[in-house]
Write a structure and sequence with these properties.
The complex is a heterodimer of chains A (about 475) and B (about 100). Chain A contains 15 helices and 11 strands. A two-stranded antiparallel sheet of chain B has the order 1-2. The chains are: A alpha/beta (about 475), B mainly alpha (about 100).
Chain lengths: ~475, ~100
């Protein structure tokens, strides 16, 4: 397991080459096969790319991520490779183009090693919903790594790639980062182009990095962030030098603690771990303030109405006509649609399509969808108010540590509630990062979440880096 | 406003999905449970709240209407389950 700093040091001293490093990671991927974190590995392409980066390094023309070995969640398109979304319906789909983020990583000379396993169409909180088998937590294989980007989190934790890209619609980067004990960053909505990200809930989806350190997450963000004409919802605001936010003091920084996230339902060990970090910030001159986000109790309900509505529309495109799985032996077009979808989608995806179709259907639109949009406004206003008095917020990432595989798979509502602290950032469109915050008595990682103002990733990276360095 | 098996059948039809009787029962139960949970939003008075459909303030985004190279027909057809020349092929739509 190594950080990018150690790779850079080895490349500079000549101990190894990008090709050598890529071989190390390929070997780690082979050893870690049992974790089921990867859905595809590209040994030839990766080695070929590594050799070309080695040439650029000797010529002095290499990009900012030269020698960083990366994996990408299998919901992000890489030209000429499959993008399955963890679903049978896209099992054989080969992407005809690169996602903007992939293009940017390649131009920065990151080496693309493979694609990571995930809950089908990013719907889940445990990576048990993949059509290609569940991902295992490296620390205890009977447990889940969180989800839906569980494969990316595990790839980083197990040293299968230096960093990884995931997607976060309601916590799918931060929650698995917390469960596995790595750094996971969800940028502001619109900060990173979604072009080439297979859509789940378009007004929520964000792409972001997993890494062992905040510094590496900041490096990846610096490369993938920025306006993209191919995504009309990407926002044209300047991308700061995130490296400049690191190694900074926290003196005078105003940190808000939302009381609603520290209820009795919160695991006492998680509470204690977070409070110890708050003491560290306090003793280093940060100002810790109680704040209120009064609509917190409505976040999960609002999220599941709006996200399933968007999902039911987005997933209408899987009809077996132009791409993806088509059921055989059908007599007409309607039957082709029905059979292809019914056989191609897994149970959780069907459940969400059903819920989303219901809340959008005639007679229920105002009661559910419209209502959800209005409450979303109230939730966003809570954050706008809070950020008038503080620079960032600190909360636990999850109400509990990793659970056993199978424990929640028959109770969708309980599964949804594991996102109780993460969906708010997607509802409000703000950035959030989860960083490791020690372990509980069973040795399972605890995650600390830092939330920031829209487009102010710099502040949350600064706080994350400070807490990481001090420990 | 409880969901019945009949409602589930109607939604399934709208979503172009098909379920066994057992699955329909299970969905009816789960949908009722989830809808009861989301029903808590009714505690909030939102009569004067503007719905939020997009989290970042963006006005209409326009671009020049220029001809650009997109996917070729061959590329667009590469994932087709069935094709004929430059077309996607599907079962007969109009009955005889």
């Amino acid at each position: 397991m190594r950080t990018y700093d150690s790779i850079v040091a080895d490349l500079q001293s000549g101990v190894t080459s990008c090709e050598g490093i890529t071989r190390e990671y390929l070997a780690a991927a082979e050893r870690g096969k049992g974790l089921n974190a990867l859905l595809a590995v590209f040994p030839e392409r990766a080695l070929e790319q590594a050799r070309s980066v080695d040439k650029k390094l000797s010529a002095g023309t290499a990009g900012p991520l030269a020698g960083m070995v990366m994996t990408v969640k299998d919901v992000i398109c890489q030209k000429g490779e499959k993008v399955t979304c963890g679903s049978k319906i896209l099992e054989n789909f080969v992407s005809p183009y690169d996602a903007t983020v992939v293009e940017r990583l390649r131009s920065a000379d990151a080496i693309l090693l493979g694609k990571t396993n995930m809950d089908e169409f990013a719907m889940g909180s445990s990576t048990e919903n993949s059509a290609f088998g569940r991902v295992k937590l490296p620390q205890d294989e009977s447990r889940v790594p969180g989800g839906s980007s569980g494969g990316s989190a595990v790839a980083v934790k197990a040293g299968i790639s230096t960093t990884s890209l995931g997607s976060d619609t309601g916590g799918s980067i931060r929650q698995p980062a917390a469960f596995t004990g790595v750094v996971g960053l969800k940028p502001t909505y619109g900060r990173v182009s979604r072009f080439g990200l297979v859509a789940f809930a378009s007004s929520f989806d964000s792409i972001g990095p997993f890494a062992l350190t905040t510094k590496d997450a900041a490096r990846v963000l610096g490369v993938i962030a920025g306006y993209d004409p191919a995504d009309s919802t990407s926002v044209n605001v300047p991308v700061p030098d995130y490296g400049a936010s690191l190694n900074k003091e926290v003196k005078g920084l105003r940190v808000g603690i939302p009381g609603e996230y520290f209820t009795d339902a919160l695991d006492s060990e998680i509470r204690a771990a977070i409070e110890r970090r708050l003491d560290v910030l306090r003793s280093n001159g940060a100002v810790i303030r109680e704040v209120s986000l009064p609509h917190t109790e409505y976040t999960i309900a609002t999220y599941y109405i709006l996200a399933t509505a968007e999902a039911s529309s987005n997933l209408a495109r899987y009809d077996g006509a132009r791409y993806g799985f088509r059921a055989g032996g059908v007599k007409d077009l309607t039957e082709m649609y029905v059979q292809s979808r019914s056989k191609g989608f897994g149970p959780e995806v069907k459940r969400r399509i059903m819920l989303g179709t219901y809340v959008l259907s005639a007679g229920y639109y105002d009661a559910y969808y419209r209502k959800g949009q209005k409450v979303r406004r109230l939730i966003q206003n809570d954050f706008i108010e809070a950020f008038k008095n503080v620079d960032c917020l600190i909360t636990p990432t999850t109400p509990s540590t990793s659970f056993k595989a199978g424990e929640k798979s028959n109770d969708p509502l309980q599964m949804y509630l594991s996102d109780v602290f993460t969906t708010s950032a997607n509802l409000a469109g703000i950035p959030g990062i989860s960083i490791p915050c020690g372990t509980d008595q069973q040795g399972l990682p605890i995650g600390l979440q830092i939330l920031g103002k829209q487009f102010d990733e710099a502040t949350i990276l600064r706080v994350a880096d400070f807490l990481e360095t001090i420990h | 406003m409880a969901v019945t098996v009949k409602d589930v059948e109607h939604i399934a039809k709208l979503a172009r999905l098909e379920f066994s009787n057992e699955e329909k029962q299970e969905f009816t139960h789960q949908l009722n449970e989830i809808l009861a949970y989301v029903g808590q939003l009714n505690k909030l008075d939102t009569s004067n709240v503007e719905p939020l459909s997009h989290v970042v303030e963006l006005n209409n985004v326009f671009r020049e209407d220029e001809v650009k190279q997109g996917l070729t027909a061959e590329e667009a057809l590469q994932n087709a389950p069935s094709k004929s020349e430059r077309f996607f092929k599907v079962p007969k739509v109009i009955s005889e």
